[in-house]
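Morning. Coffee machine broken again, so started the prediction first thing and wrote up yesterday's gels while waiting. Chain of 660 residues, entered below exactly as on the submission form.
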Amino acid sequence: MLILTEQEAIAHINQGRCFHALIEGAFSLKIDQYSPLVCTSLHSGQQLRAELAKSISLDFATRHQDSSLYCDELISSFPITLIAHDSHFEYDLSQVKSRVGSQPERFENKVWPKAWSAKQRTLSQQKHDAFYNVLKTLVARLEKQFQHSLVFALQSQSNQAQQSTFTIDTDQIDAARWGKVNQHFERQLNKISLPNLAITTDSATQPGSVNYLCTHIYAHFDNTLALPLTVKKVFLNEDNHELYHLVLDELKVGLKQAVSETAAFFMRRFSDSRKTRRGDILSSAIPKEVLALDKKLFALCKNVGTLNFINPVNLASERKKFFAQKTRYTPQFKYKQLNINPHQFREQLYKLPVEDILDADLQLFYRRFIDHLATKIELLTSIGTDDFIYNSLKYYGEPSNNDIANAEFLLRAPAIVNQEGPLVHDADAAVAYFEQRAKEWGLVCKIEKSAKLVAKAMVNNEKHILYINKDTLFSDQELDAFAHHELGIHMVTTLNAKKQPLKVMSLGLIGDTHTQEGLAILSEYSSGNLTLRRLQTLAMRVIAVKLMLTQRDFSLTFNTLQERFELSDNDAFTLTTRVYRGGGFTKDYLYLKGFRDMLNLSDQQDLSVLLVGKTGISDFTLLNEMVERGFMPKPQSLFPLKIVPSTPPNVMDYLVSAIY
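Came back before lunch.
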């Protein structure tokens, strides 16, 4: 952070520089990017000059409680922030400078037992002037650049002093001109969700709030709206000053959304920028602190892949033993050794400086992802033990009654005649076919056979290789389906992730299995290659997970699946192995659930943003924001991810539409 005088800061603004600076030791200005929105916090400061600290009658705790605590944090997501660090007891920026050194009327006893000297008043008035001179220069530049601008002023109020969660001070707002913006802001504030708290918003005159800021803005500018907001201190226990961290975090995210949406609405309504989006209000450059943390996180986690450790290394020999003993043998699977220190890994994860990230959504994103990785490490360290199944349930969950009902519905569907051809293509033919499709789609990757796969095919994200099970056979339709599934989704997201400046996109975000597999099955459906047999395979996986959880016996589950679904020995063994590997792997129910959820979402949203990497649907809104802000280019799908139903609907369309 720079240390600047008032005049130096003004010169920087006039030259269009982006900078972070402490100005006159009294207030800080952050300009990451010139945007039509300025966010201010006038009353969050605690500083007092030494001679004033000695003479004030209020102790620090009282002064602390009377200030607008944490408002500087609540606006930290925005590209331009102006934050006062001096105590409002020295000079109140919500009042004219002639009030400097006067007695606040809300206290019974004198705050200043001794009258200030002329020198003391002059020094504080100069800092008051400096703040407003810098603000005036900044707004003038923004009006010149954007024609219109908006100044958002935030303060917090005691829980006893304010009834509503949010109060918009409308005292000086021209309702005829700016009323629609105020109404829009109120609607956005009411969308905020806080843990265990009901949200209420009103617009009212707030005596003694940030009115001088409004007066100053309207005295000098005709095309700038000053929007003062007071937030109730719902994030704080005012009796013991205990901070409710979860409430504060959600409030930061909510205010970022509400203020940026309102600023975009304001610009669309009053400027030439009729297509202004929320992302246009926020910074288009990835913050340095985010890039630094992301780099450390990727270096720490890049080799932690679940499937690298969960697939048995002795699969072939255990299959032979199982069938040699007429299915009475319980396979004793062995697994690749974990090559990291899990205790040290977790310690390093939680030492990453997430608190340095100022953007509320990005900070919360990385906090949640770090917790997710810690859970993943618990899963990996318990492979082959009795604890694995519990960690799998924690990480992936288990099929709901609704998931089971969908699976049972599909499994009861009568066969569709002549829907697919015979299995005539061996692994060598499949490799040649996938190599050709990869070339046609411009995908730089390798296709190789493998003897270690449980599935028919699988993408290795680290090596950019599509592995084909050397013992499997494919039909013509399956080859096209797997091309869309494995190459068109899994390989595309692998290659896209490698191109992103944020390497976390390669690591598998929260819910990536549900989302990525859902997209992959959706690609089979959208390309016309999804068959009833394929849907029933996914449904059997759901049932297999449920059987594993209830039976806890490999042979019993194998026999149940084989008898009920008339599976071949190899198919029944493969399906049973999928859910028993590691000690009880619940992941497989997510394929059908993910397909249903992606199908439903495709009716409402463009899903292509989910192809930027190994993404999860829980981050859908943030991913769209990142693309909108220019953090990442919007990916293009190789084929449509939106379904156009047949006219009239065919049997598959009916079956898919019935999955709920």
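The radius of gyration is 30 Å. Going to sketch it on the whiteboard this afternoon.
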